[in-house]
TrEMBL record:
InterPro entries: Helitron_helicase-like
Source organism of the structure: Porites lobata
Disordered: annotated segments: 148-174, 356-378
Name listed for the protein in its UniProt record: Helitron helicase-like domain-containing protein
Composition bias, Acidic residues: 362-378
Pfam hit, one: Helitron_like_N
The organism's place on the tree of life at top rank: Eukaryota
Helitron helicase-like domain location: 4-104
Amino acid sequence: MVNEKRGLPSFFMTGSCAEFYFPPLRRLLEEYILQTKGEEVNLAEDSNARFKAVQENTHVVVSFFDLRTQAYHEKILKLVFGVSDYWYHYEFAKSRGQIHWHQLSWREDRQPHQLLHEAREDGCEEEEYAARLSQWADETFAMTALHPAGNDEEGQPRKDLWPPPEGTAEPISDDRDPLVKMLMQIAATQDAILEDHLLLVNRVGLHSCSDYCLRTPRHPEQGLQPRERICRMEFGSEFHPGKKVHSNPEIVEDHNGAPRLEMPRDHPRVVQHSRYQLQSNGNVPVVSGGSTHATWPLNEDYCRTMLLLHWPSWFDIQEVKGDTQSWIDRFKDFFASDDCPTFVKAQVAKARRYADHPQEPVFEEDEEDDAVEAEEQPDWVDVYAGRTKYMRV
Ligand SMILES: [Zn+2]
């Protein structure tokens, strides 16, 4: 299709590798270590050994990820996302050495360009363009920016199912955490699937600004307080976080001036996503997730994520943290111990340094482009990985 000059790609996509979570990769590494070193390791149970195995056998990880990416193209991208042609290349993240890919994808039906072309032929106003594009994304990918909690009988959002600060939902208890469940554990009933979607959005589908996304504008901007930073992911600014709620789809310009579809939104922080993408990640077990970016002061989400990821060989969450202690307090003990990986210590030190000296930029200027690309992906993508991260329609 590229050579036939049949038009622009339909999507830009990115996929990354959840090397600590793919069960087949674990088994492969166990077998490899057994055959090459004669050592028996249990990578499902021993997280230290898992970390070491991944670090020392990147050639195995990369080969596995390559095969998995090829299978993903054949089995998911073509069938679910209607992609007929694609071009991708692998990159390795500077900070973690982690393999990932970026891709251009063409659909056989040449959407969404075909429908945009027709809208122009029909003499549509921008509103109608947005409506048609939004309908297509909804019907084709179950794409949405609405909170899955839905509305009550009076048509008001069910804020009792939204987490604070916008709503009043109780925190998700550890035994209901959708991130420590595999999809195969979710009953195939409408209610169970809907609840899973709700929990996933509450857990990982709400954008929270942090030092990670907030940037000092290069030029003064109206309406901002002195030194107020703005969110690169278009979720408002430091003191006015979130997007505006609206009931009709809109085409808006992002900070690079590129037009972007904003689907109807009833919650200021829901990340526009495809429900298929969020839920239907087959055999990838969904562990951890949450925030992987340190903030200072420390927050519960980061501490919890780091503890669950790096606490040596835990079976039961009780082993990591008792009921009486907060994740932050538990993390402080862990942080002081030798079990805490050096890079976690470095992340925290960096966040603390930045909080103490906010005038120093966290990233070098020339790192910006790569960093932006790598960072624009939501946290949960690391967990779901090997999948499309990003679909801009
Ligand atoms: Zn943000």
